[in-house]
Design brief:
This protein is mainly beta. It has one domain: YVTN repeat-like/Quinoprotein amine dehydrogenase (Methylamine Dehydrogenase, Chain H, 7 Propeller), CATH 2.130.10. 5% of the residues lie in helices and 38% in strands. The chain has 3 helices and 34 strands. It has a 4-stranded antiparallel beta sheet, with no helix packed on it. It has a 4-stranded antiparallel beta sheet with strand order 2-3-4-5, with no helix packed on it. Strand 25 (295-299) and strand 26 form a beta hairpin. The longest helix has 12 residues, at 390-401. It is globular. Residues 1-16 have low confidence and may be disordered.
């Protein structure tokens, strides 16, 4: 842990900077939005085209939507009509969801830098160089051949999204660290080292920062100085590394931390102690959970479901089958959940009924999805996953990207729903 102690009194006292727009709705990552749900998913109100896949989610502040693209640009577009206001180019793809606070936009890029830009003009205020971005990697990853080959994980699809609280920017990095930066200057306040890539987005609640790492641990550290408060060890898989790593971001509600893991468990942990309250076992859970009204909602991988659990004990309240994997994190509004899937669709799910009530399919999915299906309409996984050579993992991923997969998480603001797609578009519904 690196801590320039002399800077702390100057940089932490007398500032109340907190995010106005951020990943999954708030710094607790609750996924709950107070604005009205869109009236229809039948047709977008507008579509903004970028030059690369959009896995970043939109953050909205003062009528402007900010989001990143694999074309290496951070975009600011008018929420009312989707017109471009400005864009800022970096040296790497941007899969970090921006946080907006006090007229400043904060985000990370795969060029290894954290940026702060003027929200109005896109002018750079500062940048901070981390130790460098990278994907999680391991030998024989997911059982791929050759087993002696160190393989970057295609399914490590996101980058950490910042949380801004009390004048501090918290963000993880592929170099294995969580960083705390002064929001005004970009000065390093402290860093916390884990055993592997940190692409989980930190949640901040009650003076504590919660986040996961590909070392398979969930951490709670002091927001003030980075001191470790507790660590929860998830499952490990030393043979092929398939069932290990915390890729998801935690959500915090009512003294409980909720977070999925690639060890096939979704966990509820005591926020004060890290003690396990319960675990729900299905498969990978890479989505950040949404928490409301005594229920916890999230998506799963293979088999794919939209799941709602009773927060008290982890018993299932909702289990709606989905066509393909769900990495998108659900957004809740007006008794509905909105979530994307690898099949290139955005779904509306009635939470009381536990059923899909509306959907939108991208043009890419409309053109290509039928070729992924059997005669009875079920998914032909053999058409997607072809073999155990590591190059096939990348090929499978590109096939799914070509469906216009929706891996971005929906954002709701001012009566609009925004979501990105691997087809390069940001969609707006009203």
């Amino acid at each position: 842990m690196k801590l320039p102690a002399l800077l702390l009194p100057v940089l932490l006292v007398g500032t109340g900077l907190s995010a106005q727009g951020t990943f999954h709705g708030d710094n607790a990552r609750s996924g709950v939005f107070s604005c009205p749900a869109p009236q229809s998913l039948e047709k977008p109100a507008w579509v903004f085209k970028t030059g690369g896949a959009v896995l970043s989610s939109a953050a909205v502040a003062q009528g402007v939507a900010y989001f990143g693209s694999d074309d290496r640009n951070l975009y600011a577009v008018n929420l009312a009509d989707g017109n471009l206001l400005w864009k800022y180019s970096t040296g790497g793809k941007i899969r970090s969801t921006p946080a907006v606070a006090e007229g400043v936009v904060y985000f990370g890029s795969y060029d290894g830098n954290v940026y702060a830009l003027c929200a109005k003009t896109g002018e750079k205020i500062w940048q901070f160089a981390t130790g460098g971005e990278r994907h999680f990697e391991a030998k024989g990853l997911h059982g791929a051949k050759p087993s002696s080959q160190t393989i970057p994980d295609f399914w490590d699809l996101y980058a950490s999204s910042p949380a801004v609280a009390e004048g501090v920017v918290y963000i993880g990095s592929g170099d294995g660290n969580l960083y705390a930066l002064c929001a005004k200057t970009g000065q390093l306040l402290w860093s916390f080292a884990t055993g592997n890539v940190v692409h989980s987005s930190p949640a901040v609640a009650g003076g504590v920062v919660y986040f996961g790492s590909f070392d398979s641990c969930l951490y709670a550290v002091s927001a003030k100085d980075g001191r470790q408060l507790w660590k929860f060890q998830g499952g490990t898989d030393p043979q092929n590394h398939n069932r290990e790593g915390v890729q998801a971001s935690p959500s915090v509600a009512d003294g409980v931390v909720y977070c999925g893991s690639r060890d096939f468990n979704f966990y509820a942990l005591d926020a004060a102690t890290g003690e396990k309250k319960w675990a729900h076992n299905i498969t990978w859970s890479n989505a950040t959970a949404a928490v409301a009204d005594g229920k916890v909602y999230y998506g799963t991988s293979i088999p794919p479901f939209f799941v709602g659990l009773n927060a008290a004990d982890g018993t299932e309240a909702v289990k709606a089958p989905m066509p393909l994997m769900v990495f998108s994190s659900p957004a809740l509004a007006g008794g509905k959940a909105y979530v994307g899937s690898f099949d290139g669709c955005l779904y509306e799910i009635d939470l009381a009924a536990g059923k899909v009530t509306a959907s939108f399919r991208t043009a890419a999915s409309g053109a290509n999805f039928a070729g992924m299906c059997n005669a009875d309409g079920s998914i032909n996984f053999g058409a997607i996953f072809h073999g155990d050579d590591y190059e096939e993992m990348y090929r499978s991923g590109r096939i799914l990207f070509d469906l216009g997969a929706i891996l971005s998480s929906p954002t709701l603001a001012d009566g609009a729903l925004l979501v990105g797609s691997c087809d390069g578009n940001l969609y707006c519904f009203r």
